[in-house]
Amino acid sequence: MEMLRVRSAVSPLRRPADDRARSVTRLPRVGDLIANLRPEDPVHCLRPAVLAETARAFRAAFPGEVLYAVKCNADPAVLRALWEGGVRHFDCASPKEVALVRSMFADAEIHFMHPVKARGAIREAWARHGVRDFVLDSADELAKLLAETGAAGATAATGVAGELGLIVRIALPKSGAVIDLSGKFGASLEDAVSLLRAARPQAARLGISFHVGSQCLDPLAWRQALDITGEVIRAAGVAIDIIDVGGGFPVAYPDAEPPALGAFMAEIEEGFERLGLPDAQLWAEPGRALVAGGGSVVVQVQMRRGDALYVNDGVYGSLADAGALGFRYPVRMIRPDGGAADVGVVGFSFYGPTCDSADAMRGPFYLPADIAEGDWIEIGQLGAYGASLRTGFNGFDQARIVEVGDAPLPMDEIGHPIEADIALAA
């Protein structure tokens, strides 16, 4: 019986549709997986129940519509779990993401939220997949959207805007987010005002969006962004139908414990009320906050050299964010013989399997002091970006995926991992 999917370069966007549809047997827990398979390739462990519950909790907390950022993890099992949790709107950034979502959910609301799109991508999304909402941050992109959707001609002929939704992304000052997103996209205040005025006659729905940066720990960043949004609205003097507060909602890591989700929602709700738009819709585009806790990766130690562990995954695979960005993750050891370590923990760095010396993760990742070749390590909080950033560099493109039913790796009340080894199932 097939228990796992074996993938090349993991991302479902790079696999045939028939492969994406293959089923996965669910196992009770990660220990069973290791006991049964003794894997020598990395294994992505998905927890659908956790994903569905996280989606339900976020939707209950957010006072508007939740658009899942598909780039964060496009695995069909993840998308199905989020759908089970009530997510019906999807933030897509490419034709393949759009096509994947539409192939799975005929009734999904798909929003093309990349500010710069190929003309063919616009046409395909509009004509083939029924996408009606598009983000832009320049006059050139507005002209492209109007031309490729036919909206300009239709509006000129009838004098009435058709189905096209246009959302103008505004620039924000650099924030304290772990991953700053202020440099590449976003119209200045002056340009945003011009874009809104130009887009209003063509748009059935006109909106403003922004992004405070990924893994933003400060709720006040949304307050500032909404105040800037208010300045743009007042200067433009046109009716606004949508306010999109973007993504960036953080999750806990061993060295980062964000405020409670309610603190972010309070700032958003208050800031939205200050805009004075009682008939406008409120949107958000969470990614990491919905899926990080619903996935982990199991790697195997191939060699130990002092306090450095050489493992079979790295920055060109699931652990990209642990490289240059220095993300730390909760970890635990799994022994091949099922035994438990009776020693203290030590902070280790990791080296990945490729020949590149940049394939290094400084950590520290705290594990039992006697960890050795052949032991496995489960690395948590990797439902976000772990699979989607994997490459095939150096030929290390094989990974497996399984759905498990056990809880995510535990962290204590200050966000540090509970560094415990676990015994395999008897």
List the helices and strands and how they pair.
Layout: E1 5-8, H1 17-20, E2 26-27, H2 30-37, E3 43-46, H3 48-61, E4 65-69, H4 76-84, E5 89-92, H5 95-104, E6 109-112, H6 119-128, E7 133-136, H7 139-149, H8 151-158, E8 165-169, H9 189-199, E9 205-209, H10 220-236, E10 242-244, H11 261-274, E11 281-284, H12 288-291, E12 295-305, E13 308-311, E14 331-334, E15 345-351, E16 360-368, E17 376-379, E18 398-404
Parallel strand pairs: 2-18, 3-18, 4-5, 4-11, 5-6, 6-7, 7-8, 8-9, 9-10, 10-11, 13-15
Antiparallel strand pairs: 1-18, 3-12, 12-13, 12-17, 14-17, 15-16
How many discrete structural domains?
2
Shape: elongated
How would you sum up the major sheet?
10 strands, mixed
CATH hierarchy, class of the largest domain: Alpha Beta
CATH topology descriptor of the largest domain: TIM Barrel
Radius of gyration: 23 Å
The total of beta strands comes to 18
The total count of helices amounts to 12
What would you call the structural class? Answer: alpha/beta
What's the architecture of the largest domain, going by CATH? Alpha-Beta Barrel
Low-confidence stretches: 16-23, 412-426
Instruction: Give me the strand/helix succession.
Output: EHEHEHEHEHEHEHHEHEHEHEHEEEEEEE
**Average of pLDDT:** 88
> Which strand-content bin applies to the residues?
15-25%
Helicity level: 25-40%
For this structure, what is the CATH homologous superfamily of the largest domain? Alanine racemase
Beginning-to-end CA distance, first to last residue: 21 Å
